[in-house]
Design goal:
5-stranded parallel sheet; 238 residues; alpha/beta; 8 helices; binds adenosine monophosphate; single chain; globular; Rossmann fold; two-stranded antiparallel sheet
Length: 238
C-alpha cells in the first residue's frame, strides 16, 4: 500500500473533523481531501442527495432535514457504511464531516472501523484521528453574522474579513448583498448553542481516550491548515 510518507499512496485511515458552524472545518476537509487524495464524506450532503433522488431514506429524512433535527442514528450509520464500502475511493481512508454527531454514532464508528481496517489494511490502527477546530464564540459570531451573499452570482463576502469594494454591493455584478436567514444573530446563537450541547459528549468521549486533537481555529486560515496537515502527517494515532 505505497510508501509510508507519500500522502497520495499511504494509508491515512479515518479522519474526523469536529467544529462549530463557521469554524472552517469544511474548508480544511477539502484541503485534506486534495492533499491525501481521499474523499470528504459529509453526511449532510449524502442525506440531501438522498432527498433529491427521492430514495426511501430520502423520503424519511426530508422533514427532519427541513427542521434541522437529527436523522436517527441507524439510518445515518447504514447510509455511511454503504458509501464507504461501495466505492474504491475509500480504501486508504476518508474524511468525515458532520459525523459522528451523537455518542452512539461515535461508538458505532469505532466498531465499524475495527472491521473495515482489518479488511482494507490489516495491522494498521483502526482508531480515527479526531480534530476539533476550536474557535472562540465571539470570533464565530463575527464570522457568521458578517456573512453577506450576492443573490445573483452567489459569491460570499464577510463585512469584517472580506468586505466588498463598495459596502453592501457585489464586486462582480453590482447586486445588493443580502444576509441569509440562518446567518442572522438570533438563529446563529441558537445554532451555536445546539452545537455546543451536541459536541460536548463527543469531545469527552474522544478526549478520555486520548484521541482528541485541538487546533486553534482563531488563527489565519494558512496557519490552521498547517497545523491540521502536520497532525495528519505525523499520523497521531493512539
Ligand atoms: P449538515 O450539512 O452537516 O449541517 O447536516 C444537515 C442536516 O442533515 C442536519 O441538520 C441533520 O438533519 C442531518 N444530519 C447530517 N449529519 C447527521 C448525523 N451524523 N446524524 C444525524 N443527522 C445528521
Amino acid at each position: 500500500m505505497g510508501s509510508v510518507t507519500d500522502p497520495k499512496t499511504r494509508f491515512v485511515g479515518a479522519l474526523v473533523l469536529l467544529g462549530a458552524p463557521g469554524a472552517g472545518k469544511g474548508t480544511q476537509a477539502k484541503i485534506l481531501a486534495a492533499q491525501y487524495g481521499i474523499p470528504q464524506l459529509s453526511t449532510g450532503d449524502l442525506l440531501r442527495d438522498n432527498v433529491a433522488r427521492g430514495t426511501e431514506l430520502g423520503k424519511i429524512a426530508k422533514a427532519m432535514l427541513e427542521h434541522g433535527e437529527l436523522v436517527p442514528d441507524k439510518l445515518v450509520e447504514d447510509m455511511l457504511a454503504e458509501r464507504i464500502r461501495m466505492f474504491g475511493d475509500t480504501q486508504r481512508g476518508f474524511i468525515l464531516d458532520g459525523f459522528p454527531r451523537t455518542l452512539a454514532q461515535a461508538e458505532w464508528l469505532d466498531r465499524f472501523l475495527e472491521d473495515w481496517t482489518a479488511r482494507v489494511s490489516p495491522g494498521q490502527s483502526a482508531h480515527p484521528v479526531v480534530i476539533n477546530v476550536a474557535v472562540g464564540y465571539n470570533q464565530l459570531l463575527r464570522r457568521l453574522t458578517g456573512r453577506r451573499s450576492c443573490p445573483t452570482c452567489g459569491r460570499i463576502y464577510n463585512v469584517y474579513f472580506q468586505p466588498p469594494r463598495v459596502a453592501d454591493i457585489c464586486d462582480i455584478d453590482g447586486s445588493k448583498l443580502v444576509t441569509r436567514r440562518d446567518d442572522c444573530e438570533d438563529v446563529i446563537s441558537a445554532r451555536l448553542k445546539a452545537y455546543e450541547k451536541m459536541t460536548l459528549p463527543l469531545t469527552e468521549y474522544y478526549g478520555s481516550r486520548g484521541r482528541l486533537h485541538e487546533i486553534n481555529g482563531d488563527q489565519e486560515l494558512d496557519a490552521v491548515t498547517g497545523a491540521v496537515l502536520k497532525l495528519v502527517k505525523n499520523g497521531d494515532r493512539v
